[in-house]
Fold this protein.
Amino acid sequence: MAGAKLLAREIVRTRAATSRLHTNKAHLIDMNARLSEQLGLVKVAGTLQKSGEVMAAVNRLVKVPQLMGTMRAMGREMARAGFIDEVMTDGLDSVAGVEGEDEAADEAVAAVLAEVAGEDVAALAGAGAVPRAKLPGVAAAAEEEGADVDELKARLEAVRG
């Protein structure tokens, strides 16, 4: 019986020692994780310090007031170039007679609409519409169209004949 008690005590002590070993292992793993975290923070701090040094060196090299002055001057020149381009375009358009072309194009569009839709265009367009009879070239076009229609009718009668 004494041997069994001694054996039972040893088993209990072994189990307690095993439990302590597991606890110590968990503590060591926790300490390893904390040390790894600390090492990572130290590396990040070193990197940030180097980054700060680089930023300071860049700030020493770049003269902000001079850069701002250069940017303002460049903005003024770009505005002048845009204004000069606009003036040149307007001048070239007036020399080339583009303004007269716009009016001629409007008249041509009105004539085509009058031919296609007849008198209905004046009714649709409202107060600013030009009557069909007043449009240049419309009367002549209508006469030519009438002659063409008469010729086609004569041909049809000849074929039926």
Observations:
- The two ends are 145 Å apart (CA to CA).
